[in-house]
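Extended Data, panel c. Modelled sequence:
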Amino acid sequence: MSYSGLLLIFCLMSGPARVLPSGQELISLEALLSKYSLKKQSLTEESVSFSSKIAKVTFNYESRQIHFNNMLIWMSQSPVKKRNKWYLNSTDVKTVIKPLLTPSLYLPTIKRATVVIDPGHGGRSQGAIGSKKQPEKRLVLDISRRVQTKLNEKNVKTILTRETDKALTLAERPAIAAKAKADIFVSIHLNYAANKHASGIETFIMTPPGMSSSSDSKPEGKTYKGNKHDNINIILAYMIQQGSLNNTSAADRGIKHARFAVLRDSPCPAVLIECGFLSNGLEESKLVNASYREKVASGIAEGILEYIKLCSN
């Protein structure tokens, strides 16, 4: 690592911070981002935006949602305002902001990647089923096979957790990645919601210890195996979400945090991607069409390949 890289890390670790009575450490947003030459572009009571030649970041008051280069990302906690200054939880800084701004400081070196692709459900577990009666388990297996083909064409070693309509426990899926000494684990699913208008693609990564998942407000302090890669997961998720959106033009539901079993137990950087809603008639019609599933697979594969490329530099 260069001297300038070490100096940057030192500056970030020693930057202005506050500690709340709860013991939660807050990092000054403006002081943090100035270290990356991100300049304040706009400030209102509800939001603040910073930008540079390579990144634009918008934070919203009392919201865990931020936009990084126009992509929606959920932090674990909302920004805090003290005397008109904005602060971020230090865990969000370590596991979201810093890795996205300087991925090269966090990424492992990969010579030839091994990717485990996990088609959700299988066997008696049908997964979601929409009005066209095409079960999630069948559609995600098809998407997974397409992703595998695209990665194999680029000399990437791939393993499917299931190649047929086979039942697997949640524990068996990351165990396959562990046995293969995988560099990347991607679990592929389809969504379903009571709200028939819900649509789009969302990518999940493991929730950091002591933080709340995106669908919850209750923190959990336990550290799981999957937390080892907290500051790398976000980079993988960003690449896959970006590739998926670019190839499908689907709605961006963002990168979110969850303690799904396959993420909790993953031995390597991992994501779980929900590729669309079978409960939405329009999106279901697309997903049962092979040409659209090809687009979904292209997006996932492109994201994985971009991540591998970053790890090879």
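Residues 1-15 have pLDDT under 50 and may be disordered. This feature is highlighted in the accompanying rendering.
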